[in-house]
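Deliverable D4.2, example record:
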Amino acid sequence: MVFFGKTILIGSILLFLPVSQMGGTSLSWTDALFTAASATCVTGLTVVDTGTSFSFFGKMVILFLIQIGGLGIMSLTSLAMYLLRQRVTLTDRIAVGQNLLQDPRFHLGRFLFRIVLWTLLIEFIGAVLLYWATKGEMHMGAALFHSISAFCNAGFSLYGDSLSRWSNNVSVNMVFIFLIVSGGIGFFVMLETTQCLSHKLSWKKRLPPVRLSWYSTIVLQTSIILIVGGGIALFVTEYIVQSHATPWPDAVLTSLFQAVSCRTAGFNTVAVGGLTNVTLLLMMGLMFVGAAPGSCAGGIKITTFRVLLGFLRAELQGRSQTVIGKLAASRETVSRALSLFVFSMVIIAMAIFILSISEIGSISHADSRGMFLEIAFEVVSAYGTAGISTGLTPQLSDFGKYVIIVLMFLGRLGPLLFIGAFHTFQRRESFSRPESNLLIG
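Output generated by the structure prediction step:
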């Protein structure tokens, strides 16, 4: 957390320098800090236009912060210590293993090397594909910027309308979807899936078959369900319930892209502020869930979401175990999932309450119609590090911007820190108290 905070501070100082700003742009310290926090937390919320407000040096600073945030300060620090042949503590090994590999027994150096190499390779391939898909309209530098931003689920774009100019371009949309999903499923799932596919596509099958683990299966299944289900839901609420002149192939493509992007990536191919309230509520749900643990994404994570659904199903069926697929989640896992859900809901509710006071506290309900939903959308987007906004971000007061900064920081590190603290301060009692029924409902 300290290294993460220092990175944001250093980044804000660099962005505040005149050399980082385009001629004629005067960036305040608050806006520089906001941009640095958004980039490091790979959120994508912006108070100024990235393409026209920052110089080449400023854009490189933002890109570097995105890459640092995507890979994770903890991973890069451990990798640097390994390269310098310094000793990495057992605590750091276990922490990185639990966050990225879901297994504390692993070779730290080899695994982190694979993370960096795979990341750079995918980002380079993504840049080449974007350059080809846009037929050079997105020059190689811009293509690399957007490829890194997409893989790291940051959502920063050099264009004021994000990706709206390519809303009907199937190739561009598919490349971005590939990059966003790759960065959102987690490094462990990505490597295991690649090994599994390589074995199935290989002509020589001398080695034993590679099977996906229970964890990877849950992540991939839930991701597909959220992408397909979210796309269908957005298509229904936006293009069937409402009358649009958009051709249905374009509407399907737009709905699919937003279902992928709004979970954590932050890119948009349509004006979010022009969407219906029902569509915004669905997007808030997807942003709150997020993507997989150990990935570049935020949210409460799809594994938490899957555990909560399993717990609810177990309660309805009268089961004592939370069954997910072929196995059952441990009681400790269920307890952590419920605690994280409650923790996140409390943080979001507090932030909405505070911003309602600071932004529209002096305005009557009749004059502030619609702003409450915009504030709630902004809060969920910041906490889920999704980076999608209805256009409220630049209009926030300085106090409101600092609230969003804290939310982005908590959304990136809060859940992991909360679970760690929750486990540390837990005390198991060696006795049981008498139980009794209490009237509920």
